[in-house]
């Protein structure tokens, strides 16, 4: 696709012909939290009451799913994990674009194919969430997300791969990972506006349970940033955050590979401190609220890649290790 007209091509195609898009579904008005009927009524009532008394108040399902969980938890007085459980219950029963016949289904998980990493993630990356994988160069970010995309395509799910100026997608590598190239569509976004159009295009043909991968958004967003002197750069950052969260609210599994910046000297709130390293996720505090889950990766040692949960909806933490092989990502102990 050109930088002026972002469109996806199937990974199996040699050219970059525009793909056909399904018509966008009509927007569904989300109900008020006070009108919901959930299994644990007492816990729901307590959460609704607490959310009504913060500034600004959270009154609707949409507002609850849009707001950053950690920021909300800091404003309310509820037991640890209570708000995360309430939001999961709300998303399960009232998320947009859900058919009534699926309300009792289990949440859609997209595994990586590595048992240790999937166990750390609770079974895989979740549909309806923006999940960020962050780490320095050569820490395995693209390989992990490519393996995840291939596993999704094996299950018959569509995948949109937005290559944000990194030229990282390899059809040969995806084929070796047994990915279905006929279900993987790739767009090369050469600047921030092209990336935004690509995300809009993805929302037109992806459906709940499908996967959208954005590789290296900092490559096209960072050149536009320049502190308070460049408000347009921060506007682009906010637009990108909103576009990713909009896809997630449609039930799509949104995966982002982010690079790093130098961390603080004290290591506080830096993802690199999980590995005793001095780095943090790139793109700053505005971007930090985008993802509900952040998986930090460290540079490999003796071929072993390490990852740790830096942020999760339920507040869980943990670490895992994996290796990269021809077929994808595998447990560190696998041969």
Mind explaining what this structure looks like?
The protein is an alpha/beta fold and 335 residues long. Helices cover 32% and strands 20% of the residues. It contains eleven helices and 14 strands. It has a ten-stranded mixed β-sheet, sandwiched between helices. A hairpin with a 7-residue loop joins strand 12 and strand 13.
Topology, element by element:
Layout: E1 9-10, H1 41-52, H2 61-66, H3 69-75, H4 82-94, E2 109-110, H5 115-120, E3 125-126, E4 130-134, H6 141-154, E5 159-163, H7 171-176, E6 184-188, H8 192-205, E7 211-215, H9 218-221, H10 231-249, E8 253-258, E9 260-262, E10 279-281, H11 284-288, E11 293-301, E12 304-311, E13 319-325, E14 328-331
Parallel strand pairs: 4-8, 4-11, 5-6, 5-7, 7-8
Antiparallel strand pairs: 1-6, 2-3, 9-10, 11-12, 12-13, 13-14
Helix pairs in contact: 8-10
Shape: globular
If strands are numbered along the chain, what order do they take across the biggest sheet?
A: 1-6-5-7-8-4-11-12-13-14
Low-confidence stretches: 1-6, 14-28, 96-106
Sheet with most strands? 10 strands, mixed
- Chain-averaged pLDDT: 82
Work out the helicity level. Answer: 25-40%
Look at the helices and sheets and give the structural class.
alpha/beta
**Tally of extended strands?**
14
Number of helices: 11
Order of helices and strands: EHHHHEHEEHEHEHEHHEEEHEEEE
Rg over CA atoms, rounded to whole Å, is 19 Å
Distance between the termini: 40 Å
**Strand-residue fraction?**
15-25%
């Amino acid at each position: 696709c050109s930088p002026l007209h972002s469109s996806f091509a199937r990974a199996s195609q040699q050219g970059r012909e525009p793909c056909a898009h399904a018509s966008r579904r009509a927007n569904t008005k989300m109900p008020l939290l006070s009108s919901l009927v959930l299994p644990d009524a007492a816990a729901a009532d307590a959460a609704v009451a607490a959310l009504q008394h913060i500034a600004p108040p959270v009154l609707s399902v949409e507002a609850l799913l849009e707001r950053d969980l950690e920021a909300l938890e800091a404003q309310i007085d509820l037991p640890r994990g209570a708000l995360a459980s309430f939001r999961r219950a709300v998303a399960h029963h009232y998320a947009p674009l859900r058919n009534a016949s699926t309300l009792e289904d289990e949440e859609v998980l997209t595994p990586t194919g590595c048992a240790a990493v999937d166990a750390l993630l609770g079974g895989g990356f979740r549909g309806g969430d923006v999940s960020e994988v962050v780490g320095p160069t050569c820490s395995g970010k693209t390989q992990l997300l490519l393996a995840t995309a291939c596993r999704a395509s094996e299950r018959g799910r569509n995948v949109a791969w937005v290559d944000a100026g990194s030229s990282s997608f390899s059809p040969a590598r995806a084929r070796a990972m047994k990915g279905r190239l006929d279900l993987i569509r790739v767009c090369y976004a050469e600047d921030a506006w092209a990336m935004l159009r690509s995300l809009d295009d993805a929302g037109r043909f992806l459906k709940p349970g499908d996967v959208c991968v954005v590789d290296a958004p900092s490559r096209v967003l960072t050149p536009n940033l320049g502190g308070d002197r460049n408000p347009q750069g921060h506007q682009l950052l906010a637009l990108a955050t909103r576009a990713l969260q909009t896809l997630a609210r449609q039930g799509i599994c949104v995966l982002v590979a982010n690079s790093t910046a130098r961390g603080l000297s004290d290591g506080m709130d830096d993802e690199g401190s999980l590995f005793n390293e001095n780095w943090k996720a790139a793109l700053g505090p505005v971007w930090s609220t985008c993802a509900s889950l952040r998986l930090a990766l460290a540079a490999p040692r003796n071929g072993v890649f390490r990852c740790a949960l830096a942020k999760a909806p339920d507040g869980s933490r943990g670490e895992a290790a994996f290796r990269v092989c021809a077929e994808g990502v595998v447990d560190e102990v696998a041969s």
